[in-house]
Amino acid sequence: MDLQTRLLQHLQAITGDRNPYFAQLACLAVRSYIIQTLSQYGQVEIDEFSAKTQIPQNIVLSIPADPQKSNKLNKPTILIGAHYDSVPGSPGADDNATGVAVLLELAREFTEKPLGYPVKLIAFDLEEYGLLGSKHYAEKIFQSGEKLRLMLSLEMLGYRDKKPGSQKYPSPLLAKIYPKQADFIALIGNIPTLLDLWQIKGKIQKQNIGCAILPVWNRGISIPDTRRSDHSPFWDLGYPAVMVTDTANMRNPHYHEATDTIETLDLEFLQAVCQGLIDGLRLL
User: What b/e readout covers 252-276, taking b as 16+ CB neighbours within 10 angstroms?
Assistant: First the structure.
């Protein structure tokens, strides 16, 4: 089975209103699917935390480094996350079934061919309610003193529009610098990730899709739209972190709508993003 077919199968299992407050059974079914899939590759940790009346769960898989590539003990971890909750009334195909689908395929890839760094793959809960899952986990590892080589947040990866003028930006300056067509994937990282941004960009572009990078200062506070996903709690605690995104509502008219369905996605684009990330992460 090829990569695009596997990604589609994940999307079909995940897409659907899975809001944890208003579609609890669907949310539980998706959570079970993620746990079952990740359990094929190792022991899954359920990281529970409290939020109002819920007991939400982050789902964590740890993959050890390849001993042939890791030349020292206690190498810092590459942490890759994607949120699995959706807003009420939206099937959330792009937001964020695409991110979770890619996360599951990275689990497969890095179990079969481990990286030189240990990897943690995390499906975050309650992103749509204030990044609660990632805030909890970022604070947890910060308090433990754990170091990260890189944190990567997979946030909406499957929407592309080749029409001129289809891409919007949160500021006029960015609109002058970056492409006018919504046919690229964006990598938005803090300054410590600058070299990683360039390296991953190069591998993504080899998949024949565009890739734009945006380094941000001061935790992205001057451009609030750069903070709208699970990487920002890691920025706030000083970790090197990158958001991988198709830019959400800056291009996708189905954002947070009932029309955010699989049929609106570009699976060829999603496959290219996934393969580019695999190849890029192998450079680190």
Answer: bebbbbeebbbeebbbebbbbbbbb
Token couple for 109:
């890839």
Q: What's the rounded Cα separation, in Å, for the pair 261 and 5? A: 17
CA angle 133, 61, 15 (to 5 degrees): 60
31 Cβ neighbours under 8 A, 6+ residues apart: 57, 59, 84, 123
Angstrom CA distances, 168 to 35, 80, 114, 272, stand at: 36, 27, 38, 22
Place of tokens 């938005």: 188
Classify residue 68 as exposed, middle or buried by CB count within 10 Å of its CB (0-12, 13-18, 19+): exposed
pTM greater than 0.90: yes
State residue 10 phi and psi, 5-degree precision.
-65, -45
Confidence band for 119, pLDDT divided at 50, 70 and 90: very high
Q: Cis check for the bond before 74: say yes or no (omega within 30 of 0).
A: no
Distance CA 259, CA 245 (A): 19
Which CATH number applies to 3-281: 3.90.550.10, 3.40.630.10, 3.40.640.10, 3.40.50.1820? 3.40.630.10
